[in-house]
Write a structure and sequence with these properties.
elongated; 6 helices; about 100 residues
Length: about 100
């Protein structure tokens, strides 16, 4: 699979993950019930780990992805948008090294 398509799949998965978690965080159950909140965060953490394992190298999983897994942060608007990606890497080669071939 070419790097562009692989990156697009990763960003699409991340966008879906982030928007669904954001919607769940706005529900009354999430805000008022700690058991529901805990279950949602556990499930979404597992989903995020699955996305990362499918798309990132083990090095990227240990480094840049670890913080995201620890806090499960989302932002409005989402930080990830297919077609508008600006990576944290210093250059394209480093950025591509984080993705599975």
């Amino acid at each position: 699979m070419n790097p562009s398509k692989k990156l697009h799949e990763f960003l699409t998965s991340m966008l879906e993950w982030e928007t669904t978690l954001d919607k769940q965080k706005k529900t009354k159950d999430y805000k008022n019930n700690s058991e529901v909140r805990s279950n949602i965060l556990q499930k979404k953490g597992e989903e995020l780990l699955h996305i990362f394992k499918n798309h990132l190298t083990s090095r990227a999983l240990r480094t840049i992805a670890k913080g995201r897994l620890d806090i499960l942060a989302t932002a409005r608007p989402p930080r990830v948008r297919p077609g508008r990606f600006r990576g944290h890497a210093r250059n394209q080669r480093q950025q591509n090294s984080y993705l599975h071939a």
